[in-house]
Specification:
Blueprint lengths: L2 H13 L9 E3 L2 E3 L6 E6 L4 E7 L3 H15 L2 H4 L2 H17 L1 H12 L3 H21 L7 E2 L5 E9 L2 E5 L5 H15 L2 E5 L6 H12 L7 E3 L4 H9 L6 E5 L2 H13 L3 E5 L5 E4 L5 H13 L11 E5 H15 L19 H17 L3 E3 L18 E4 L6 H4 L6 E7 L2 H8 L4 E2 L1 E5 L3 H10 L4 E4 L14 E2 L2 E2 L4 H6 L2 E9 L1
Parallel strand pairs: 7-8, 7-10, 8-9, 10-11, 12-13, 12-18, 13-16, 15-16, 18-19
Antiparallel strand pairs: 1-2, 3-4, 5-6, 6-22, 11-21, 14-15, 17-20
The chain binds nicotinamide-adenine-dinucleotide.
The site of nicotinamide-adenine-dinucleotide has 31 residues, from helix 9 and helix 10.
């Protein structure tokens, strides 16, 4: 353990917070108070106590941030060539790596996630900035064969001012996967982090300024969805919105975007299947299924929250899963926890309500199924790792996203039934399969409706792989070169020669 990491953990555990956390909006290159002067608390889900306060933004703060981003669009930023933009992103990547311990500890305090997971997120952010640093000067258009009298070509131009609305489950990585490509493309931004988890996004904005980003290019307004988020997505000064969050809010954002015909990417929820066939490597499947649902206490849009298991192996697999789930000790993310807390009391109640409805309807709960009493876990907001048998394809546990550590199990007779079950919800975000039969794995990859498919390793990939959903999981793609093109508008130019 590095001494800085150990010192940060010690300070956070002893004082309940860290010195020097940001507290204002980041607008036009500096931290500022909310116009209203109001502030709001940020809570540590591991102990249920507030540990920081930030500015509580509303439409007036959004106006100021959008004005700064619009002005920056025609400032020095617009004259920097793409390679120079890439150099700023590369410097940012190095600075984040240097300060990774602090980013990770703050992310754990704000989101609740275990420190090792937060460290993984920060490493992914370092990589994302490096990836888009390298991509900034490789945004090629095409040339079209129009015959000897014309030259036709396309140019990728920055879309303009991009708005980002970020949820609380992966605060820094979700912000970064939008900010890095938008900057690489030459856009300016206004980012609204989730009200529960604003701190690392504010830290990132300050760091980017230090890396050389001109004033006003990246602005961050903290505040609730109702006050700051809704004002941002309805703003006429915004050219593009990337919204990551729930289906219900996504639908509201889509309606708001329609008013000004604002471009939109929606990254919404999921109920993603993990198919396990009888011929799989059982050890790999056990590890993969557990990680797919209990990582970040199941608060992952792409969580493998539905296990679809072939009858022949169901009993053996479920015995192993239940045994391992029962070993996961809930605890504070900065300690030695096996599973971290739920991000808020509201989310904890939602998770509990889903399972209580299932219990009342007669679902068999194989393990878990309850809130951990706060007195048993330092006052934090914890739910027991839970595995439940589904009652049929229409079971709400099969159809509804829970966004917590609750695995729904569907037992099927064969591969064909597994494919049918995998496609039988209104979501289509990710899908996984464990099998030694690669022909079946590839048939599954073709047959399943999902934005991404994992074969024999759930969550495989990284920033190079485009990520996004179909159907109610949304549309548009983050990450990869596709994520970069989300922040570009294509211009066709034809010359007569
Ligand atoms: P949410 O929709 O309640 O909030 C997400 C963000 O939207 C927050 O910043 C919130 O302040 C803001 N918001 C709320 N109301 C708004 C409004 N009217 N206008 C504009 N912004 C508004 O979602 P949540 O509960 O914070 O996050 C969990 C959901 O996010 C889950 O459904 C999860 O699957 C989804 N998610 C999807 C992805 C993905 O990449 N597909 C990633 C993470 C989370």
């Amino acid at each position: 353990m590095t001494s800085e990491r150990a010192q940060l953990i010690e300070e956070a555990m002893r004082t309940g917070t860290l010195a020097g956390l940001p507290g204002g909006h980041f607008i036009n290159g500096r931290f500022v108070d909310a116009v209203s002067g109001r502030r709001m608390e940020s809570f540590d889900p591991g102990n249920g106590k507030p540990f920081a306060t930030v500015a509580a933004g509303n439409a007036e703060d959004i106006d100021r941030a959008v004005a700064a981003a619009r002005a920056a669009l025609s400032g020095p930023w617009s004259r920097l060539n793409p390679a120079a933009r890439g150099e700023i992103l590369m410097r940012a990547s190095r600075l984040i790596a240097e300060r990774s311990a602090r980013f990770a500890v703050v992310e754990t305090l704000d989101s609740g996630k275990r420190l090792s997971e937060a460290e993984g997120d920060v490493a992914g952010v370092v990589r994302a900035f490096a990836y888009y640093a390298g991509a900034a000067d490789k945004l090629y258009g095409d040339s079209m064969p129009l015959g000897s009298d014309h030259i036709g070509l396309t140019i990728e131009e920055p879309v303009g001012v991009a708005a980002q609305i970020v949820p609380w489950n992966y605060p820094l990585s979700t912000a970064a996967r939008g900010i890095a490509p938008a900057l690489a493309a030459g856009c300016t931004l206004v980012v609204k982090p989730a009200e529960q988890t604003p701190l690392t996004t504010l830290m990132l904005a300050e760091l980017l300024q230090e890396a050389g980003l001109p004033e006003g290019v990246l602005n961050v307004v903290s505040g609730t969805g109702a006050e700051a988020g809704s004002a941002l997505v309805a703003h006429p000064g915004i050219d593009h919105i990337t919204f990551t969050g729930s289906v219900a809010t996504g639908q509201r954002v889509m309606r708001a975007a329609a008013e000004h015909v604002t471009r939109l990417v929606l990254e919404l929820g999921g109920k993603s299947p993990v198919v396990v066939l009888g011929d799989c490597d059982l050890d790999a499947a056990v590890d993969g299924v557990l990680e797919a649902i209990f990582e970040n206490a199941g608060q992952i849009c792409s969580a493998g929250s539905r296990l679809i298991v072939e009858q022949t192996i169901a009993e053996r697999l479920l015995d192993r899963l239940v045994g391992r789930a029962e070993l996961l000790r809930p605890g504070h993310g900065l300690g030695e926890a096996g599973i971290g807390p739920i991000n808020s009391p509201a989310q904890l109640s939602r998770v509990a309500a889903h399972v209580e409805r299932a219990r009342a309807a007669g679902n068999r709960i194989l393990t878990g199924g309850g809130i951990v009493p706060p007195e048993d876990c330092g006052g934090g907001w914890f739910y027991r790792p839970t595995i439940v048998l589904a009652r049929g394809a229409d079971d709400p546990l099969v159809q509804e996203e829970i966004f917590g550590p609750v695995l729904t199990v569907q037992i099927v007779p064969d591969f064909e039934a597994a494919v049918t079950a995998a496609n039988a919800t209104s979501f289509a975000l990710v899908a996984g399969i464990y099998t030694r039969d690669h022909a079946k794995a590839w048939r599954f990859a073709r047959a399943v409706d999902a934005g991404q498919v994992y074969i024999n390793e759930f969550f495989a990939g990284g920033v190079a792989m485009p990520f996004g959903g179909n159907r109610k999981s949304g549309f548009g793609r983050a990450k990869g070169m596709a994520g970069l093109r989300s922040y570009c508008k294509l211009k066709s130019v034809v010359a007569r020669i």
